[in-house]
Write a structure and sequence with these properties.
Layout: E1 16-18, H1 20-30, H2 51-62, E2 78-81, E3 84-87, H3 88-97, E4 100-101, E5 104-105, H4 107-111, H5 115-121, H6 131-149, H7 153-159, H8 164-174, E6 183-184, E7 187-188, H9 193-206, H10 227-233, E8 237-239, H11 241-248, H12 258-280, H13 287-299
Antiparallel strand pairs: 1-8, 2-3, 4-5, 6-7
């Protein structure tokens, strides 16, 4: 059975309860504001984005855009590009930008990556977890593009007719790194975080409407480790005492446990509930725009440091 993550909250005994009134209060605060689609102007990303290789760049980089927190006591990983140092997502993108040449973006390098190549690709300061797993993921992703899409993600995007939902479906069906559908105690959860993010970045980097992309308005929130901080801060997601202590003391929340599933499920549910509450108040927020508003609050906003801890799960899914 597939769970409808948007219409029902997770079981409260998994560790996360939903305060519906808090979601309505946030909708009251945000009603009437503009929700712009993100333009993907991260520092460290390529200034020129040729369609011949842009979709390969996104498919490869987003396949390993996960687990960017450092273990307790270690420094956050940073990557250097053109004399600047970037952490989090810009750090990952800058590592791939270094592989862009005037001739394009060589998938062959990734298909044949060695462990040493992986360490070189992700060279930087601080600690980046799961480098060997990232390297294996990149080899498998490049191989899948060659096997299913004649060595070009542009063919995948073309087969989807630049429709976001179809891009997501084809990524999941043909590239194992994009499968994010764990079996929970309540059924199969289609989180699909990286697939939705990749499809959105593909469109944002080319120009949403000017690039001929459609089918993004109903995208769900991307359940990661930053958005729950916002929902918890505003009171929409309420952790029970045990889970709250584990998160606040930076203990690992193991992957594929009820607590981890509940945090991600609640993120998608709160996003859908907030989107509907805004619509009821005459404010339309497309999925990627709402996601970006929440992500920017958690990462870039002036109050980001006051939102509390995020959960820590050792995973390649987000």
């Amino acid at each position: 059975m597939t769970i409808d993550l948007r219409t029902t909250p997770p079981p409260a005994d998994w560790g996360v309860a939903i305060d519906e009134a808090a979601i309505d209060r946030l909708a009251d605060e945000w009603q009437g504001s503009a929700f712009e689609l993100p333009v993907f102007d991260y520092p460290g990303t390529p200034a020129n984005r040729a369609p011949e290789w842009w979709f390969d760049y996104v498919t490869m980089s987003v396949s390993v855009l996960a687990c960017l927190w450092a273990p307790e006591g270690d420094e956050i990983w940073h990557a250097e590009h053109n004399g600047e140092w970037f952490d989090d997502a810009p750090g990952i993108f800058s590592a791939f930008t270094r592989r862009v040449t005037p001739a394009g973006f060589d998938l062959g390098f990734f298909a044949a990556m060695s462990a040493a190549d992986g360490r070189e690709l992700f060279a930087g300061s601080g600690t980046l977890l799961l480098i060997d797993e990232r390297t294996a993921t990149l080899r498998a992703t490049a191989a899948a593009l060659h096997e299913h899409w004649d060595g070009s993600a542009a063919n995948l995007v073309g087969a989807a007719d630049r429709n976001g939902a179809e891009i997501v479906r084809l990524l999941i069906e043909t590239i194992p790194a994009y499968v994010d559908r764990p079996t929970t105690l309540a059924g199969e959860a289609h989180f699909d975080k990286l697939a939705h993010l990749a499809a959105a970045i593909m469109a944002a980097g080319m120009g949403w409407h000017s690039g001929g992309f459609t089918g993004y308005d109903a995208f769900p929130l991307y359940p990661d480790y930053m958005l729950p901080r916002v929902f918890r801060h505003v009171g929409a997601m309420v952790y029970d005492a045990h889970l709250a202590d584990r998160v606040d003391t930076r203990q690992l929340i193991p992957a594929d446990t009820p607590a981890e599933h509940a945090i991600r499920w609640a993120t998608v549910y709160c996003g859908a509930r907030l989107s509907q509450a805004l619509a009821d108040r005459g404010t339309i927020a497309a999925g990627p725009a709402l996601d970006y508003r929440l992500w920017a609050m958690a990462v870039l906003g002036p109050d980001a440091d006051t939102l509390g801890e995020h959960h820590r799960t050792l995973t390649m899914r987000y």
